[in-house]
Sequence to fold (656 residues):
Amino acid sequence: MMAELGLAALWLAAALAGLQLVAGALALTARGASLGAIVRPVAFVQGLLALLAFLCLIWVFAETDLSVKLVALNSHSLKPLIFKIAGAWGNHEGSMLLWVTVMGLAGGFVALVERRLPEPTMLATLAGQAFVSLGFYAFLLMASNPFERLSPVPVEGNGLNPLLQDLGLAFHPPTLYLGYVGLSIAFSFAIGALVTRQVGPEFARAMRPWVLGAWIFLTLGITAGSYWAYYELGWGGWWFWDPVENASLMPWLAATALLHSAGVLAARDALRAWTVMLGVVAFSMSMIGTFLVRSGILTSVHAFAVDPQRGSFILALLAINIGGALTLFALRAATVTEGQRFAVVSREGALVVNNVMLTAILGIVLFGTLYPLFAEAMGAKVSVGPPYFNPMGALFAVPMLVVMAVGPVLRWRRDTLERNGKALALPAMVAVVGIGALVLIGGVPLLPLLGLSLGVALIPASVLPLRDRDLRRTPLPIWGMVLAHLGVGVALIGMGSESAFSVEKLVAVHKGETTHVGPWSVTLADIEPVAGPNWTALEGVLQVSRGKADPVILRPQSRNFWAPPQQTAESALLTRWNGQLYAVLGGEAPGATAGGPGDGRWQLRLWWKPFVPLIWLGGVLIALGGVLALLGRVSADLRRIILRDKIAYRRERQGR
Fold:
């Protein structure tokens, strides 16, 4: 019953998306102007129906309704409830339903609360949102029905990929999707502004909070995904330039550039074409990421779907949406005026430089992600990884970070570096001292050296915008910028330290034997069998100590899941202020002859990673900076609206 209700809600939501598109388009004409009144209510109801469909999917997963094909393929009755629920989006069909749900809710929320744009632009925006949504509704209903029934009903389900049975993956995809699909609002705003030729500060002020919200969720999603891969996959790395990792990074880079560009347009009426173009590009990167993950052309623990027909459908949607938007931009670009001029040395100039650098990094990541796919299509196997991404990205990231330290202290329109020389002297001196100290230490590769030096310099540079201010009256967006830039510096220190100073050790030890990694002594005390709700495991009991301190117990596991059958390594982490000890338990070491019986030794893989938690702390600080900026923007908009209503009310009373 719940499956049929969900499918009916999905069909109704799709029908309303079609109505929203037609009514919004006709309302822009003289004859159909009266239809504009229904567009906002239709958008809101469409979002509620999409939410109802998704809640129905969660219900059938929570109840393990094996008559639903998707549940039978991705769930199991013995799975913990949280992972049953997470299974609703831990697959292709469910993740796409989550996509259209977030898109419907975002459009409905915009229709409900947004009042700053001129009504024609708002109608064109909602029509654009409906156009994009309609394609994904068609994809779900025609190629990826999440409520398809199964007959005969199996006795038991296949279960969820054990690597996805983790609390991090229960919350990571929804967070990331809120960012991905939230950028559809920026896309729709850009389309609406191009259709009505109303690109100006009001457009940027209306779009900016929605982009900022999507960017916050993207930041949190990428940070959480990086930490999940770090501790769950047992490989000890926090980023590997996996194509699916890149699929989330690309829209984040575009959204970061869009935020800065929209800020310039809102404050100084400049960068009009930049802002519109980035609005299109940001969501386009989300669409490309969707194609990569769900087309079947990638093999990854994150990727879904192996059906080429589905990939072709998504590719067609991508071509229609992105191609149509770029065509519209090309046709209307001449009508988008340049806006106000500014000097190269100014805050606007610094933001333009950073946007160019971000766009260049985006191009590098996009090329490195797609090139192996094109090469494979031509019959060649090519692997593109850190040796390409790290140095090529650094060519643009390093100047971008230098400008990021300088830009916030520059004045709008025009400034001089001489005026800010004293303020910038401290960060410059810190960077020079950092480089000198690392050179004296020796053995630090160039990229980690640059990362560490820029990271420590960014920390004092990030607080420079607060100088000469009354901190109690400093606007929240300024605090948000300071905190976000501070987070970048903190993350850089973590990245550089992990790359330059990590120590790894792979050993095979007997029970009671001690080994050393970095400053830590690690003793294998015992191996114990343990059982979970849908797995069994061998658990290592490790006694770890540093100096004369009392030992601490770590318990890494080698788990065996039976639904579906798979072995995973569950790492154990010991976090201290200056780093993290990372332990993974392998199998019993073979005997003297290959394939022979074990000799009582157990394989351990150990890392000491100085200051590695700063990577994710920095990510959280960046997101918190976004939250402060969003709160400040929203509160300022509310005050502006209240003031406008008061003025209108007074004028009305005076007119009487």
In short: Confidence is low (pLDDT under 50) at residues 300-305. DSSP finds 17 helices and ten strands in the chain. Residues 501 and 599 are 33 Å apart (CA to CA). The first strand starts at residue 503 and ends at 509.
